[in-house]
Amino acid sequence: AEMTHLQAGLSPETIEKARLELNENPDILHQDIQQVRDMIITRPDIGFLRTDDAFILRFLRARKFHQMEAFRLLAQYFQYRQLNLDMFKNFKADDPGIKRALTDGFPGVLENRDHCGRKILLLFAANWDQSRNSFIDILRAILLSLEVLIEDQELQINGFILIIDWSNFSFKQASKLTPSILKLAIEGLQ
């Protein structure tokens, strides 16, 4: 099949899992992707900065190949970036703020996957030193980590687990988590 290059490097087990759990069908992958791409003109207000096959495929996988839902997620992704431009300036691992957050373990990424093949990200909230890391830098570091990890097709299919340990999280630390900042985090992670 000419489309299987989009599934290149996937184990037979993962391809089967994608078929069973995500409704992924290699024979019509191209049509599915094109149908999502065709919806882009309905949102001229959003700059869709990437529309290649591999990129759109991520969103289809994230929404079990419901094209409308996948498109909604794709639109949300770029809209979030458009509305929070400053968060994505110098969105690289060598950005000082992001680098410091990553060095301090925000997030920690475990080497081994869980029994479902998911990647595990770990955050110890009590370790947040507010004089070193702004909440925004921690959020940027998490989003960048996910952005890099999601390049891996196995993870697009198997997914992620984000574990946050809130033990010993102080009231002083919590006071920085305003509703608007939490909203920003939740929308970004979605």
UniProtKB/TrEMBL annotation:
It is a peripheral membrane protein. Residues 52-77 form the CRAL/TRIO N-terminal domain. Keywords: Cytoplasmic vesicle, Endosome, Golgi apparatus, Lipid-binding, Membrane. Pfam families: CRAL_TRIO, CRAL_TRIO_N. GO terms for biological process: lysosome organization. One of its GO terms (molecular function) is phosphatidylinositol bisphosphate binding. SMART domains: CRAL_TRIO_N. GO terms for cellular component: clathrin-coated vesicle; early endosome membrane; trans-Golgi network. Its main location: cytoplasm. Transmembrane segments: none annotated. It is found in: Cytoplasmic vesicle, Clathrin-coated vesicle; Early endosome membrane; Golgi apparatus, trans-Golgi network membrane. PANTHER family: ALPHA-TOCOPHEROL TRANSFER PROTEIN-RELATED (PTHR10174), CLAVESIN-1 (PTHR10174:SF72). Required for normal morphology of late endosomes and/or lysosomes in neurons. Binds phosphatidylinositol 3,5-bisphosphate (PtdIns(3,5)P2). This is Clavesin-1. It comes from Psilopogon haemacephalus (coppersmith barbet). The gene is Clvs1.
